[in-house]
Amino acid sequence: MTSPSPVQTTQTTQTAQGARPTAPDGPAARQSVIPGAGPALRPGERDTLRLREAATADTADTEEPPRYAPEWLQLREPADAYARAHDLLDPLRIRLANLPRRAGGFVVHDIGCGTGSMGRWLAPRLDGAQHWILHDRDPYLLHFAAVASPRSAADGSRVSVETRRGDVARLTPEALSGASLVTASALLDVLTREDVDALAAACAGAGCPALLTLSVAGRVELTAPHPLDQEITEAFNAHQRRDGLLGPDAATVAAEAFAEHGATVRLDPSPWRLGPEQAELTAQWLRGWVGAAVEERPELAEPADRYLTERLEACAAGELRVVVHHHDLLALCRPSGAAA
Predict the structure, then answer these.
(1) Which DSSP letter does residue 333 get?
(2) pTM for this structure?
(3) Phi and psi (nearest 5°) for 33?
(4) How far apart are CA 315 and CA 154, in angstroms?
(5) 3-class SS at 115?
(6) What are the pLDDT digits (tens) for 162-200?
């Protein structure tokens, strides 16, 4: 995901990693959200990764800034790493091992790389030399991702990186020529059906597999259950589907799209499991989750403020546990030149 530089982020109460957040004082707490954890604060805006319009030298300085804060991406990285479906790695390793060997190793395109968490998680779990091409809108994040990228694979082979600033234009097989793998994290749910079809067609045309992780599934479990849980979940899901975006339908739609292009597709669950040790992340997630629901259904504002206050108090007391359901998708497209 993309993100603004730190000076562009909205103000939020920062706590030490792993420390318990303090409970909110009132209804304004809903608005104290790290960009990316919840809805944009200006009416009619939405945090999305833009795929249709590549940034150019003429537009790079005038386009509206991205709205995903590095603080949010860093805060969620440990939970993402723990949640990803590790069982998808073996079939991916087998596919990569069967590719023709190249002098520079595997070429991996990481779409919307953000702070580079996908590369830090995946590269050390794969054998063989790798060259990662990191795509993001934000030059600060690209710099961070490049500097913090892993330098060696699971077997000690070299890992190198390059960065490409700008939104990813419509992907084509030509754009992915030479790619061994396409990866992304928390991407599919901010795409439209047309975007997903284009992504599947490009990967199929290039004959490269895709590992697309952490797509929201539209299901949340909180302890203890509350009468408003379902209403807020439904409002949040409706917010995710604004403007034709796929939201919680994304993983299923993507699986169908890749299958239609002849890929072997596997969907595995990858839930966040948040407890007292993840209190800071849970608090930010709660504010964003409830804030998006209220943005979608303003009539929920008053009861949602009370709900959020209760949930944040439970979080601060170490009594709240949350499961946020996601899906990971592995699509093994037919290698280029394979028989239909």
Answers:
(1) P
(2) 0.83
(3) -125, 130
(4) 37
(5) coil
(6) 998 865 545 678 888 889 999 999 989 989 999 899 999
